[in-house]
Amino acid sequence: MRKPPAEIVASTLAVTTLFIPHHLPPWAIFIGWAGTFAAGGPKPEVLRRIWPTMALGSCVACMIVLGFQFAALHLTGAALVVAQCAILFCLNGSMMALGRFEPLSFIPGMFFGFASYFATYFGGFGPVPKDPFVALASVLAMNALGPVYAWLTAKLGAHHHHPVVEEAPAARPGPLTS
Predict the structure, then answer these.
(1) Residue 5 main-chain phi, psi, to 5 deg
(2) Could you tell me if 31 and 146 are in contact, meaning their C-beta atoms sit under 8 angstroms apart?
(3) Is residue 98 part of a domain?
(4) In a domain? residue 5
(5) Phi, psi of 158, rounded to the nearest 5 degrees
(6) What pLDDT is recorded for position 102?
(7) Does 8 reside within a domain?
(8) Contact of 26 with 20, CB cutoff 8 Å
C-alpha cells in the first residue's frame, strides 16, 4: 500500500489538535514536532534527547514564574527588577549548564519547553488559567505529544526528498585564468 504524502499526514495530525480539550496549548505539540525534525527526525536517539530537554526547559520556566511571584510578594520597584534579573540569570544559566551532561545536551530542546511554558502560562492556557503548576502539567503533556506526532508523520507519510546538487563556483577571470 502506498503511503500518503507526509504533508497530508502532518496536516491531518494538525487537524486533530482542534479537538484537544481543556484549553490545552496545541502549539506546544507543534513546537515538539518541529523540534524533533530539526534535531534529525523521530529516531530513538533524537527522542531520548528532546523529551527530557523540553521537560527540563518547562520546569525551569515554571521555577522562574514561581520565583518572580515570590519576589513580587516581598519587593517592589528597582529591588523587584534586580531580583527578577537574578532569578532569570541564575535559573537560565543553571539550566543551560546542565547541557554539559550528555542526556541533557540538546540545549535547543530546553528552549522549546521554556518557550512553550511561558506561552501557556502567560497566555492563560490550561484547565486553570494562570496556575503555574497546571500550566506546567499542560505543557509537559502537549510537548510530549510533539515527538509522537513527528513519529506518526514519518511512519505514515511518504517523504519526497530532492537531492541537493552542489555546483562548483564558476571560475572568475583572474591572474591565473583568462
Answers:
(1) -60, 145
(2) yes
(3) yes
(4) no
(5) -90, 125
(6) 94
(7) no
(8) yes
Per-residue pLDDT, 172: 58
Note whether 143 and 31 are within 8 A (CB).
yes
Closest CA to 137 of 147, 126, 129, 145: 126
Which residues have C-beta within 8 Å of that of residue 42, sequence separation ≥ 6? 36, 147, 150, 151, 153, 154, 155
Domain housing 110: 44-156
For residue 153, what is its C-alpha cell? 508523520
What are the grid coordinates assigned to 11, written together?
Answer: 496536516
Asked if residue 91 belongs to a domain, the reply is yes
Give CA–CA dist 88/120, Å, rounded: 18
Q: Model pTM?
A: 0.86
Cα 35 to Cα 41, 81, 156: the distances in Å are 9, 32, 19
Instruction: Give the residue ranges of the chain where pLDDT is below 50.
Output: 177-178
* Number of structural domains the chain divides into: 1
The pLDDT value recorded for residue 171 is 57
- 106 CB-contact burial (10 Å; exposed 0-12 / middle 13-18 / buried 19+): buried
